Amino acid sequence: DAKTTQPPSMDCAEGRAANLPCNHSTISGNEYVYWYRQIHSQGPQYIIHGLKNNETNEMASLIITEDRKSSTLILPHATLRDTAVYYCIVRVSSGNTPLVFGKGTRLSVIA
Amino acid sequence: DGGITQSPKYLFRKEGQNVTLSCEQNLNHDAMYWYRQDPGQGLRLIYYSQIVNDFQKGDIAEGYSVSREKKESFPLTVTSAQKNPTAFYLCASSMGDWQPQHFGDGTRLSIL
């Protein structure tokens, strides 16, 4: 079973920041938090991952709480093309372990 | 371009037939994975392989088989024993350890 809890759906106005929450209260010290998104009928797209520190790349920012029990994915200026299902996944840092997907959050960006 | 290629994009199977889905990667990744996705659901793991000539069953391996004879290829066979094969099938690969997985564009399998 997935080790994360996400809201089933969220709306965001175009141009505004989208903040997607994720709870992972049972995360272990050697587990990373990964975020993927899936646009309809396509394969999931990797967005970002982190262990302890906040991370930022060209797509998004990942904010992890100090106790590591929750995190937030931030899309700074959402566009209509960001409409997708976003998955938050916890995965151990070694051994090529598979990803365990939950149902994710369906983000709708509204014009 | 480097990436993961799945073919065909759409596949139709008659009852009782085996079909093989192709997955090729030119990323030099060690590990490869097969997932199944049903409408409105997340992905579920079928099989994965961490190295050539070795693979492990995932949560829903019954009715499926795989092989890993080459590093770049990880074909999935959906056998007649899989009673509900209609689904979206996704292949992924990763370099190792904490490195993220990268996915192909999927194959949509339907029963005629």
Report on this model:
The complex is a heterodimer of chains A (111) and B (112). Chain A is mainly β. Chain A has no helices and nine strands. In chain A, the strands form two sheets. Chain A has a five-stranded mixed β-sheet with strand order 1-9-8-3-4, with no helix packed on it. The model of chain A has no long low-confidence stretch (mean pLDDT 93). In chain B, a hairpin with a 7-residue loop joins strand 9 and strand 10 (102-103). Chain A binds chain B through residues 2, 32, 34, 41-46, 49, 51, 87, 91, 93-96, 98-104, and chain B through 4, 6, 30-31, 33, 35, 40-45, 48, 50, 58, 88, 90, 92, 94, 96-98, 100-106, 108.
Q: Roughly how many Å is the radius of gyration of chain A?
A: 13 Å
**Oligomer status:** heterodimer
- Report the count of strand segments of chain A: 9
Measured by DSSP, the beta-strand proportion of chain A falls in over 45%
Content of β-strand of chain B: over 45%
Write the element-wise H/E pattern of chain B from the N-terminal end onward: EEEEEEEEEEE
> Unreliable segments of chain A (pLDDT under 50, ≥5 consecutive)?
none
Which two chains form the greatest contact, residue counts included?
A-B, 24 and 30 residues
How many beta-strand segments of chain B?
11
Walk across the major sheet of chain A and give the strand order. Answer: 1-9-8-3-4
